Amino acid sequence: SPSLLSNPLRLTPFPLCKQTFVSQPGAAISNLNDLTTGLLHYIYPSSKSSAVVRFVEIFEADIFTSLVQEFSNHFNQYNRIEKRHNHKSKEPILGKKHLETLANTAKFLLIFIGKTYQFSGSFSIDPLWTDLGDKVAWTKREGFSNEYFYCLSRIATTPALQTQYFGYFDRYYQSNDYYLWGYGRILMWYFDFSEMGQNQASQSIDYRNHFRKIVQYLDEQSTKTNWQNKQNGFLALIYLLTFRMIDTDFCQPHTPERQMAEQMLSRYEGTDVRFKQIDTPKSLNQLFQELLEGNASETDVDALIHGS
Fold first, then answer.
1. I want to staple 176 with a disulfide (CB 3.0 to 4.6 A). Which of 62, 172, 246, 306 is the partner?
2. For 230, how many CA atoms within 13 A lie in the half-sphere containing its CB?
3. Which carries the bigger pLDDT value, residue 66 or residue 176?
4. Which H or E run contains 16?
5. Residues 7, 185 contacting (CB under 8 angstroms)
6. What is the pLDDT of residue 79?
7. How far is 196 from 162, CA to CA, in rounded Å?
8. Cα(275)–Cα(304) distance, rounded to whole angstroms?
9. Are 308 and 184 in contact (CB under 8 A)?
10. d(CA 291, CA 308)
11. 197: helix, coil or strand?
12. How do residues 208-240 score in pLDDT, each as one tens digit?
């Protein structure tokens, strides 16, 4: 059957330079919020075609560094405010509107940083990964943890960052709706199956264990109505099947993970988990089943590659 290989992102550049974005230390949050809000219009094209995806093209390190630093500053400021609230400090507390602006600007910064995709590999992004648990809790509380996981997965261009992202699997694959979105995209966009053997791959990602856990998760989700969880789960499983390139025993008929997958799929009989970005009349659960059994067509594989 056809294999799902790492797919270079087909992107349309949006150059970002000092003339369009300059982050000055100590700049007013409201001004930064207005600026980022305005620039988002240019990053997201009016066309809804999945073939048109814009990324931020940054060539000046100080601009990228300032973006990352501003996000860290917003996170740290919010943390300080939270501590004052928790300790009932007598110091003045910022108003609700200011806190919302703080969170909104941080959200837009994450979008900008994430939209650099491979360009981020040339710059320091460590601050985005530090205190990850606290950042996830903050962004989830403020309603934009999706953008945080989108950002982390988009900039996980190196094996070290990919391993770091996969290392959070047990912590977030069930508790956060968006972790699996990034998990599957990293496998699709960046993970280099052709350059590593089975031992090296298993050191980077515990793919057999993860596969079984996602199957069990989807089994539990079969009677629930959160379709995004099911979409992300099936996409992650589809891309995990690519490990059969380097592990010929993975998901063979006699293996526990294959038997679990078949049992899970039986619970989705009569149910279509669809993903509109994929140009095929087939559901994700049907595509997964055909890939599992080795019956998927080249057309279906191509649709998966270009639709995710």
1. 172
2. 23
3. 176
4. strand 12-16
5. no
6. 74
7. 14
8. 10
9. yes
10. 16
11. coil
12. 999 999 999 999 999 888 889 999 999 999 999
